[in-house]
Amino acid sequence: MANCITRHIPNAVTCCNLFSGCIASVMAFNENYTLAISFIILGAVFDFFDGMLARLFKVSGPLGKELDSLADDITFGFAPSAIVFSLFKEVHYPDFLLPVADYMPYTLIVCIPLLAFFKISSFAAIILWYIILSLLTKKERKQ
To answer: Please, what are the averages of pLDDT over each run of 10 residues along the chain (143 residues)?
Structure first.
């Protein structure tokens, strides 16, 4: 009985990671960015502990591997994309980007998880897009 319970503890922690990513996504769409980032950080803590607990209990299985991958995709791929999506709906684009301004958030919600798939940090991609847009809008304001 104890073995049955202990082998599912890492999966339960992984489910907490997945739940944190889902809540972070909801908070991002509700434009509550502080809570969204807080839940992403909480998901990172759960992600650390699920791996540590799996090694501690010497537990491994196909369900845990797939669940961990799904939780990581949601918490570190989709949730940051949702934050960027919500932020890009509020950006004032320069004149030359106005024809594609309506499509920018939708392209980013696809691009950021792809960058996470290729092991490029989602936060680095968000910072890069923010710098590019701030430079573009700064030039537009000066003119």
So the answer is: 78 95 95 93 93 89 90 89 81 77 72 67 65 59 47
126 neighbors 112 (Cβ within 8 angstroms): yes
Using CA atoms, how far residue 58 sits from 6, 65, 79, 104, 111, in Å, is: 10, 14, 30, 45, 36
86's tokens: 């919500």
Inter-residue contact 83 to 126 (CB < 8 Å): yes
Query: Cα–chain-centroid distance for residue 31?
Result: 15
Whole-number Å distance between alpha carbons of 130 and 32: 18
Q: Which residues, other chains included, contact 57 with Cβ-Cβ below 8 Å and sequence gap of 6+?
A: 6, 7, 9, 10
Q: Cα 18 to chain center, whole Å?
A: 11
pTM (2 d.p.): 0.70
Contact by Cβ (8 Å): 65, 57: no
